[in-house]
Amino acid sequence: MKQFLVVIVVVAMASSAFGGGILTNTNQSAQFIRTLSRNASTAIDATYFNPAGLTKLDDGWHFAFHNQSVFQERTVTNGHPLLNNDEYVGKLNVPFFPNFYAVYKQEKFAVSFGFGPNAGGGSAEYESGLPSFEAGLAKIPAMVTQMGVPTSGYKADMYFKGQSVFYGIQLNASYAISDVFSAAIGGRYIMANNTYEGYIRDIQINPNYPAFGFTGNYMSAEQFFNALASVNPAAGAYAAMVGDKKVDSKQTGTAITPIVSLNVKPIEALNIGVKYEFKSPLELTNETEVDDTGEFPDGVKTQNDIPAIFALGADYAFAPQFRASLSFNYYFDKDVDWDGREELVDNNYIEIGVGAEYDLSEVFALSIGFLHSQPGVSEDYQNDISHSLNSNTVGLGFGYALTSALDFDFGILYGVYDESVKTVADPEIGASFEETYNRTNFAFALGLGYHF
Fold first, then answer.
1. What is the number of structural domains in the chain?
2. For residue 142, what are the contacts with CB-CB under 8 A and spacing of at least 6?
3. Which end of the chain lies in a sparser environment, N or C, as judged by fewer CB atoms within 10 Å?
4. Is residue 177 part of a domain?
5. Res 63: pLDDT
6. CATH assignment of the domain containing 30
7. Closest among 79, 228, 80 to 151, alpha carbons compared
8. Domain that holds residue 423
């Protein structure tokens, strides 16, 4: 039964990120969804991507509200010879992923406010469990057969839902040192909240031992072991192990991320953004309502740091109506404290994005982008719960100026992941088998901006 608990403890990192590193979300605007490259932005979403670039805005107030809807499917194929199933599909649905930005710009100064899910932001639901849920259950029939009661099958009702969202409130102050250089300093206050609900119940087996009235039909495993305890006292301990288990818990914590950035515009056609987000030490505390397992005690603390990020970007206008961009992100995953799990990271996570935008008219622009993400986790890091895969994502969309003060953005993206195969050994049955991980990702976004 212990495998079920491992799922709960680490699923927050497994299901947090949509665009960005293992834990962090960088999909923070509708413009990002349609271009996939915003590190040199001088629009209102520079509040997140390039705060120093906000000095390039027109004087006055600027507001934006964006929402993304993200849908991910995760498939795990497992070759364990005892499992009932060989394919497990998890659904991650995020219909509401909001971002709000507000900027006031006056001459050389700009102050800005941002709000959004800077990590987490998803709800992962596994209606039939995962291989690690079932591995212990799958061995019950063989164990019972060794006790002298022929048993060939098992079944159980399994469910798990994990929800993770780290909301961030960001404040920046930006200053134009000259026409070429601008700088900004800021910080983000992170409010982390993970919730976990799950159970394994109604575990059944099909013992065939007529002398005790077991006829090969499925029955409660708990009732079977209690009945067997009359002749085999050791069976009584198994009855408690196969009883219904439920967990209802959440984790909360806060952190602060200092942020510095620099914007460089050496010529009219070229703009360069540089940003560094410092590591955010984050301690999560269990707040547990129900824990039938004894493995998720109330008040226990775990470490789940948000890594430092170095971001570099460049925008270049080949013509007044045609612009291209390049973005690079480097996540310092090896330098965090994830209660030892960071030791399974061989290299830091990197991302490279390219985007292009073309103005069809003074009010309508089409865009397209491509993003390649490459984590540096070791093979030992990968498992059915927490795996990080190379990915390639394409985004496209448009921007439309509804009026001189009101603009609209729409974007969609589709991401595919490189399949990863791991050989897993099970010493209890003396066999090895392959486990394969894969994902697909789809998102669309809408955004409104208002300027006066």
1. 1
2. 82, 151, 429
3. C
4. yes
5. 98
6. 2.40.160.60
7. 228
8. 25-122+165-190+252-451
- Residue 7 pLDDT > 70: no
Gap between the Cα atoms of 383 and 400, Å rounded:
44
Q: How far apart are CA 95 and CA 72, in angstroms?
A: 11
d(CA 376, CA 188): 26
Bridge partners for 373 per DSSP: 351, 391
Cβ 253 vs Cβ 304: under 8 Å: yes
What is the four-CA torsion angle of 165, 123, 299, 242, rounded to 10 degrees? -170
For 120-163, the pLDDT digits (tens) are 756 677 777 778 778 888 889 988 998 889 999 999 998 878 78
Distances (CA, A) of 269 to 50, 356, 357: 17, 14, 14
Query: 235 in a domain, yes or no?
Result: no
pLDDT-derived band at 10, boundaries 50, 70, 90: very low
In a domain, 355, yes or no: yes
Rounded Cα distance, 343 and 193, in Å: 24
Paired tokens of 435: 């486990």
3-state secondary structure the chain: CHHHHHHHHHHHHHCCCCCCCCCECCCCCHHHHHHCCCCCCCCCCHHHHCHHHHHHCCCEEEEEEEEEEEEEEEEEEECCCCCCCCEEEEEEEEEEEEEEEEEEEECCEEEEEEEEEEEEEEEEEECCCCHHHHHHHHCHHHHHHHCCCCEEEEEEEEEEEEEEEEEEEEEEEEEECCCCEEEEEEEEEEEEEEEEEEEEEEEEEEEEEHHHCEECCCEEHHHHHHHHCCCCCCHHHHHHHCCCEEEEEEEEEEEEEEEEEEEEEEECCEEEEEEEECCECCEEEEEEEEECCCCCCCCCEEECCECCEEEEEEEEEEECCEEEEEEEEEECHHHCCCCCHHHHEEEEEEEEEEEEEEECCCCEEEEEEEEEEEEEECHHHCCCCCCCCCEEEEEEEEEEECCCCEEEEEEEEEEEECCEEEEEEECCCCEEEEEEEEEEEEEEEEEEEEEC
User: What size, in residues, is the chain?
Assistant: 452
Residue 371 has pLDDT above 90, yes or no: yes
**Is the distance from CB of 417 to CB of 390 less than 8 angstroms?**
yes
**Does residue 286 lie in a domain region?**
yes
Encode pLDDT of 323-343 as tens digits: 999 999 999 999 999 988 899
Q: Which of 447, 448, 414 is nearest to 36 (CA)?
A: 414
Q: What percent of the chain has pLDDT over 70?
A: 95
